Records
---
Amino acid sequence: MILYTALKNPTKTFIGYEISTVPFYFSKLLKLIFRQNNLNFYRQDFLDIEFQNEFLYICYLFPKAMEDIEEKIKDTDTKPTIISSTFALPTTKAQKKETLDDILKTPIYFYK
């Protein structure tokens, strides 16, 4: 998802976080193949980073991780902008929800 976004926005900088070995190295390989100098990957847990208000966070995480993000946000004054594919924050109402026109009708949630 982040590779596509970086390809479509070449003047912006993107950072990807992945803790699983195979997806991490596969992402780095795709970065090289597509020569995306505006994209960096870190083998780090997304939940260990400090969220910042001026960044946009795009995620595709499982439901428990979305619960953890919601708890992390509640414990801070930072209110990051988050776009989440497929899974919503459990109790925070999305500002906007869109459904992709794909076979799965994938929901996309927007939070501020």
Note: The chain has a mean pLDDT of 92.
---
Amino acid sequence: LGTTMVGTLDAAGDFLGDGEGWSEIRVVSGAVKGLAAVGVTRYRLSSLPPAVDSRLVRLNWGSEGPDGRLLFSDWLGDRLYQQDAEGNLTLLAGTGAGYFSPDGTPALEASLHNPSGVVMDAEGNVFFSESDAHRVRVIPRRDGTLFGRQVRAGRLYTLAGTGEPGFNGDGSGIERTLYNPRGMLLDEDGALIVVDAGNRLLRKLARDGHLATLVGGGTAPYLDPDMDPRHYGDTIGPVISQDRLGNVIFFNHATDFGTRIFFYCRTEGTYFGRPRRAGRLYALTGPRSATMGDGPGEHCQVSSLGGLLVAPDGDILISDRGGRLLRRLDVNGNLTTLAGVNLPWSGVTVPPVSLPAPATAQPLSLTLVRAAADGTLLLWDMASAWQLTPLRSE
């Protein structure tokens, strides 16, 4: 089951040998008895101070700004925050009242109605989706014109959505309806790509204010291994990511066909071990019938995804099993568990571990993941933060 691993653990608990992943094995050790899912990776996990105080901020979405600062949306407090390199948290918008404020309201005096995705461009403009107000909005850095709208610095403005949930086609963003917009990212040309979750669409808001559909609008689940993205009719999860060539990665929520990770190819090439055509949609992980373990991604299952991102090296990092596992889909298309403990039934508990320790010894509940260029990963959950450091080059 899972991946065969041959080797030993040294005194620090690091794996010495060949292979990585997780398997189901028989164990009798302390509180853990019977069949348990365990694993090893070539990473060391160490504890960090929490990214934010979970008593004050409940993280809904996070992203990294162009200068390294972090942006957070708070789903419980209806606020937006930014955090500098020293860890100082600054309020960007929101009073904590959960309702819509009209355009032109100063950001610090405005109420927000369930902010979700949030990103910042190189000029310091902050874009976010206001999910329950069914709008995409901006906090400009300076006075001027953005996405076809005249704006003033530090105030809120709508870029897409009328406030009524629904779909009335593509066209001028401020005249088009959205339905529960969630995650977003900045496209290579400065446009916004937004998850229009209620409409089961990925949409692009161009710099001139035009809103167009990229993926979705069909009635079929993913069945064709080389699919026209306009025929896709399944759900789209709240989190999306993008590689350096502009290809978009997203996932669907659990359906009768299972949760899968999808690749919307916009630049033709070889990705994840296979050639891909521009303008087509591909599944990178397997259907519900696939194995629960590690191996070739197309033959492996993912489930209850909390998020994903494309690391600087092109690998996809996945918060899986409700955040209990951190997994990696590498550029060759292989799926590997990097951190976390996956237990096959609720009656098994894992005792606390002494850190630093093997990454797969620590129970996790991941909310956010951040990848550094040197391969180090920073992980957050509601109350803790972790650093995952490679033990050796792979």
Note: Residues 1-6, 22-38 have pLDDT under 50 and may be disordered.
